[in-house]
Write a structure and sequence with these properties.
Blueprint lengths: L1 H34 L5 H17 L4 H21 L3 H22 L10 H25 L4 E3 L3 H10 L23 E2 L13 E7 L21 E2 L3 E5 L5 E5 L5 E5 L17 E4 L9 E7 L3 E6 L14 E3 L12 E2 L5 E3 L2 E4 L2 E2 L12 E5 L5 E5 L28 E3 L4 E5 L14 H5 L3 E6 L5 E6 L15 E7 L2 E9 L5 E5 L8 E6 L13 E6 L19 H13 L14 E3 L12 E4 L4 E7 L3 E7 L17 E3 L6 E7 L14 E7 L4 E7 L22 E4 L3 E4 L6 E6 L5 E6 L9 E4 L6 E7 L12 E6 L4
Parallel strand pairs: 2-35
Antiparallel strand pairs: 1-34, 3-41, 4-5, 5-6, 6-7, 8-9, 9-10, 10-11, 12-15, 13-14, 14-16, 16-17, 18-19, 19-20, 20-21, 22-23, 23-24, 25-26, 27-30, 28-29, 29-33, 30-32, 31-32, 33-34, 35-36, 36-37, 37-38, 39-40, 40-41
Length: 790
């Protein structure tokens, strides 16, 4: 018995030391937080822990009572600050409750005290306070809602009785990256329905061979983001190195391969989002149908759709050099990763240009080529006046001009192609930009397909200092305005705003208002006093950050995040970059990105997946070298970027705790539906979990996501995109998750679907290769799901 008592006393002393040390950190950090204008809770709690630790060490009866009072007060404070949010309560209560449990157990049978003694009173107080905290966590865990906006029961009930869909096979094509040139990502396929989707099984899997493990000679990061197209019952897509594959639509067996033997070198990231299709209905034989693709080493290829053979009439041996006319160019730092838009016999494409390195990056020129010969038809240089003639000499295009790296849309009837543009590099300082470089930056620009002349443009960010370029393919659809059907365009932005425009004129179809935004004090910099905001249509812009929204695993790293929040400039969205450091929220990956949105024209729903975490942005004068972080190896990873040609370099880091946990509380990712009739959110819920990336496979709901959705006539919306390796199916009407299929790697791509003309089976296909910068599971798989054959 003496040995047992001695051991328990030793355990109590360990707990006392731990409580004391934690209290000391909370006291010092809490005092600093108060000085910075933050909450007093951490100072008060820290002092209570210090005193309790000392008293428990001394075996003073008031030690356990003091800790119990602190834990009870913490529970009250936590519920007051964040309400019934389980994931917000967890770091505030879980750690203190576990210590309370250990303390109660150590106090347990120390000796058989008579009823009412101080030791029993202390043990009872600690047990009660611990139970109260645990109860708060348990209740909020089991009552955490999946939906932030629940679907309307009346609408769901009405539609369930008014609509039915035939499961008869239809000719459900997928002829372009977004389904067609409109980019709605909607399929008329209805073989797979909400009633039978749970029966989906893997039908076939194909591996491209493009992974770091299979190709160790490749040193560049690899991300597999391709969305295939369907051509004559062949699934055709590109791999990250620019290989073009054609697979049998029913079996996944390779039909042909064109390998351009891409020079990967120092490419910032190996990536190919897709290929384009051109058909000449008047021609027969070789290249009557052709596949247009690009490579990261600056080539555009034309391949026969039947055999994969190079089209001999296109450039030289089926290839043209896209670096021609670009002047001095750092190889593999500017390239086309998105498929060109095909309108008639014209292929129109832009290019990616690395961010934040130099003002002398290659031009962001958009070019149109004859899809049969590869001849340059026209070029639109946003850095030149609209009436500037096209010159044929080298270095003809404006260096560092705004580019258009994402996917284009087109309306052949209007003769327009729609470009989502970026801003003039470098991105986070604008002192070097001319009026011409500002004019079409971060905009939707409509060009005449025949001439390349600007017909209209709409700017979504003025004097962009946040890299809020237009990341997503504009989506063309019919929109009702006062009972009239108007040809519309949806422009998703990194900010989370979705601008709805008349695609004939660029005029907003919903309210847009200029609102005052924070201003900076950087010498020589100009700040736009206002920015455009959508009014009258759902916005996915996140609410402003607060200190209470800071997160962490424990009270200690949560305190660190609170101090970090108070240490940086933040006045809401559009807080400008500064030398002190600022918080940009959403960060440069945005709320919405290249996955764009999908539109169900039957249900009048827009499906939107969104995600964001805060980002720390800090400017450094070139003349100073103090505390500058290590230079980033490319513009997509944390670190320092020089912004040559300006007075400042910039560092970009996700806002993480010292444990690598986001400082902002989950959920970080959501999927939502907007009712296009009302412009309001019909439903919104968390999307995905962290199970495949977090330690111990902890499944925090609402993970960051990158990819897009596809929806079907039967009422299903499919999406991968998340940190966990799943393809999911949601009921478009209700947002209810109906099915998930396990993927062999991260699904950071937009799926597509088709109905085989040969078998009548509907397939849902996604590239599962992971994303290097999201640290999802790498792979090289294309996976098709279908209903079992009976």
């Amino acid at each position: 018995m003496a040995m047992g008592a001695s051991l328990r006393r030793w355990l109590l002393q360990i707990i006392a030391v731990f409580i004391f040390l934690v209290g000391a950190v909370l006291t010092v950090g809490g005092a600093y937080l108060i000085v910075m204008g933050g909450t007093a809770y951490y100072l008060i709690t820290g002092m209570a822990c210090v005193v309790s630790g000392v008293l428990i060490w001394r075996a003073d009866r008031y030690g356990p009572e003091g800790y119990a009072a602190m834990l009870a007060g913490t529970t009250i404070w936590a519920l007051w600050e964040v309400g019934g949010s389980f994931w917000q309560l967890l770091p505030r209560l879980a750690g203190p409750a576990i210590i309370g449990l250990l303390l109660a157990l150590a106090l347990g049978p120390l000796q058989q005290e008579p009823r009412g003694t101080a030791n029993k009173s202390g043990r009872r107080s600690v047990a009660l306070a611990t139970a109260w905290a645990a109860l708060a966590l348990a209740i909020t865990f089991f009552t955490t809602p999946v939906f932030e906006v629940a679907p309307s029961a009346a609408r769901v009930s009405s539609l369930a009785h008014s609509q039915s869909f035939s499961q008869a096979p239809v000719d459900a094509k997928w002829s372009a990256y977004g389904g067609d040139n409109s980019g709605t990502r909607h399929s008329p396929a209805s073989v797979i329905t909400p009633e039978n989707v749970t029966m989906l099984r893997p039908a076939w899997t194909f591996e491209t061979g493009d992974t770091a493990a299979k190709r160790p000679e490749i040193k560049a990061p690899i991300s597999f983001m391709a969305t295939p197209v369907i051509v004559d019952d062949r699934v055709i897509f590109c791999s990250p190195t620019g290989k073009v594959f054609a697979l049998d639509a029913d079996t996944g067996q390779q039909v042909w391969l064109r390998d351009p033997h891409t020079r990967t070198g120092n490419a910032q990231m190996l990536n190919c989002r897709g290929v384009s299709v051109h058909r000449d209905t008047t021609a027969m034989g070789l290249c009557a149908g052709r596949i247009i693709s690009t490579t990261v080493d600056g080539r555009m290829l034309a391949s026969d759709a039947e055999t994969g053979a190079p089209c001999p009439d296109f450039g030289t041996d089926g290839s043209i050099n896209l670096d021609t006319g670009m002047g001095a160019i750092d190889p593999l730092r500017s390239y086309s990763s998105s498929p060109p838009a095909i309108v008639g016999n014209t292929a129109i494409l832009g290019a990616y240009v690395r961010d934040n390195f130099t003002h002398d990056d290659p031009s962001g020129v958009v070019r149109a080529f004859d899809v049969k010969t590869g001849r340059l038809l026209w070029a639109w240089d946003s850095g030149k006046s609209d009436d500037a003639p096209l010159s044929g000499i080298d270095d003809q295009w404006t260096r560092g001009s705004p580019n258009a790296w994402s996917v284009f849309s087109a309306d052949p009837a209007l003769g327009l192609v729609y470009l989502p543009t970026g801003n003039a590099t470098p991105d986070h300082v604008g002192t070097h930009r001319s009026a011409l470089l500002e004019r079409y930056a971060s905009s939707i620009v409509a060009l005449d397909v025949t001439t390349g002349k600007v017909r209209w443009h709409f700017q979504t960010v003025h004097h962009d200092l946040w890299d809020y370029d237009m990341p997503a393919q504009p989506v063309l659809f019919d929109f009702s305005v006062n009972g009239r059907t108007v040809p519309a365009l949806a422009a998703p932005t990194k900010r989370g705003e979705v601008f709805i425009l008349d695609r004939r004129t660029g005029r907003p179809l919903t309210g847009v208002e200029e609102r005052s935004v924070p201003q900076g004090r950087l010498p020589g910099e100009y700040y736009s006093p206002t920015q455009p905001f959508v009014n009258g249509f759902a916005s996915f812009a996140p609410p402003p950050l607060t200190e209470a929204a800071m997160w962490g695993v424990t009270p200690l790293d949560q305190l660190w995040c609170r101090i970090r929040f108070r240490s940086l400039d933040y006045a809401g969205m559009f807080t400008p970059p500064s030398e002190r450091g600022s918080i940009q929220y959403p960060g440069t990956f945005g709320m919405l990105n290249w996955g764009s949105v999908s539109i169900d024209p039957m249900r009048k729903f827009m499906i939107v997946n969104s995600a964001a975490i805060p980002q720390e942005v800090r400017l450094f004068r070139h003349a100073r070298q103090d505390d500058r972080p290590a230079i980033a190896k490319d513009s997509h990873v944390p670190g320092y970027l020089p912004q040559i040609g300006t007075q400042y370099g910039v560092s970009l880091f996700p806002m993480l705790s010292p444990l690598g946990i986001p400082c902002h509380a989950p959920p970080w990712g959501r999927i939502s539906a907007v009712d296009l009739r009302s412009g309001k959110i019909a439903w919104s819920r968390s999307l995905g979990t962290t199970a495949d990336t977090a330690p111990f496979h902890i499944a925090i709901p609402g993970a960051f996501n990158l990819g897009g959705t596809v929806n079907t006539a039967s009422g299903l919306s499919f999406i991968g995109a998340t940190l966990d390796n799943y393809l999911r199916a949601f009921d478009t009407e209700t947002g209810r998750e109906l099915w998930r299929g396990r993927l062999p790697a991260g699904g950071q791509a937009t799926p597509m679907t088709y109905v085989s003309r040969k078998s009548g089976r509907q397939f849902v296909v996604i590239a599962a290769g992971g994303h290097m910068y999201m640290h999802t599971t790498p792979g090289d798989h294309v996976v098709a799901f279908a209903l079992p054959i009976h």
